[in-house]
Amino acid sequence: MIDFAYAADAAAQPNILMQFAPLVLILIVFYFLIMRPQQKKFKAHQAMLTELKVGDKVLLASGFKGTVKKVGEQFFTVEIARGVEVEVERNAVASKVA
């Protein structure tokens, strides 16, 4: 009689796969809605930084707009006003202005 009780109790427990299905679904949605677009944006920004050359107009993260005067390994020299040149890190360049 006790054996039947254990068998009935084991059948009532949900499948372990069904317990983790919502978690897996949330992780998949999180990847496609948040992580993948961020990776694409990061790659596009890195490609834009590698293509910058002297004379390109850029917008800095601080809001200044200027012209690239010197391209270095880690830094750019940007002229933000006539005779005013600043040296900024590569990641401080937000975008290229047309």
Please give the CATH architecture: Roll
Which structural class should the secondary elements be placed in? alpha+beta
- Strand order of the biggest β-sheet: 4-3-2-1-5
Q: Major sheet: size, sense and barrel closure?
A: 5 strands, antiparallel
Q: Within the CATH hierarchy, at the fold level, what is the topology?
A: SH3 type barrels
Query: In CATH, what is the class?
Result: Mainly Beta
Distance between the termini: 82 Å
What is the count of DSSP helices, taking H or I runs of 4+ residues?
A: 2
What is the number of beta strands?
5
- How many discrete domains? 1
The unreliable regions are: none
Proportion of residues in helical segments: 40-55%
H-E order: HHEEEEE
Radius of gyration: 28 Å
Mean pLDDT: 89
- Name the shape in a single word: rod-shaped
In percent, how much strand structure appears in the residues? Answer: 25-35%
Protein name: Sec translocon accessory complex subunit YajC
Pfam family, one: YajC
Transmembrane segments: 16-34
Membrane topology: Single-pass membrane protein
Task: Provide the descriptors you would attach to this structure in a database record.
98 residues, alpha+beta, 2 helices, 5 strands, 48% helix
